[in-house]
Amino acid sequence: MSVALSFHQVALAAALMLVNALLSWRLQLGLGREIVVAGARMTVQLLLVGLILGWVFALRHPLTVVGIGLVMTLLAAQAAVGRARRRYARIYLDSFLSVFGSSFVLTGLTLAGILQVHPWFEPQYAVPILGMVLGNTLTGVSLSLDRFTSDVVARRSEIEGLLALGATRWEAAHAEIASAVQTGMIPTLNSMAVLGIVSLPGMMTGQILAGAPPDTAVRYQIVIMFVLAASSALGSLTVTLLAFRALFDARDRLRAERLRGVKG
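^ that's the sequence the OP posted. Answer follows.
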C-alpha cells in the first residue's frame, strides 16, 4: 500500500533544491535562475498532468486517449528537433513521423499483444506506457538527427568524392547512417546493461512503492525495457533515413546547402 503524500511533504522535498542553488552560488555557476525555473516548471507541469490524467482515467474514451497521445507526440517531436544543431526544411515533419511511427506502433503492440489490456485504450496503461516510450524515442531521434547532420557536414568532401567516383548516395552515406543509428541506440542499451545492478528503474520502483509484489514489478520493467529498446532503434533508423532522403537527391547528389546551423 502506497504512502499518501501531503503538499507539506512535497515542499520539504523541494527544499532539497537548495543544494543545487548553494552549489551554483558558491561555485559561481550562474545557474540560479535555471534551477528555479526548472523546479517551478516541473512542479506546475506535473500537477497539471495529474489533473488531466484524473479526468482522462474517469472518461475512458478512446478518442480522448488518442488525442492526448498525439499532443504528447507533437511535443516530443518538437523537443527532438530542438536539440539538433543543424536543421533542414522538413525536419519537424520527419521528427514527428519518426516519433509517431515508432512510439504508437510499439505502444499498441505492447498493450494489445504483450500485456493484452482490455480495452486496448485503457488509460491507466496506455498513457503511462506511451509516455515512457515517447521519452525514450525522443532521445534516440534527437541524437541520431544531430549525429547524422553533423557527420554529413564534417565529411562533406569525402562524401562528394565518393559520389564523384560513381558511388550511389547510399554507398556514400552508409557510414554516416550507421553511425547515427548506433548513436541513437546506445543510451538505451547502456541503461539496460546496468539495470538491477547499478540502478533500479523508475517504473519498477514506483510499482513496489505502490504495493506491487517485487517479482511482478520486475516482469513489467523487463517488458518495458525491451519495448524501449525497440522503439529507440526504430525511431533512430526512421529519422536517419528520412534525413538521408532530404539531404541526398534522386540523382545521387549531396544537398548540403539544405542544412542551416542553429545558434546556441
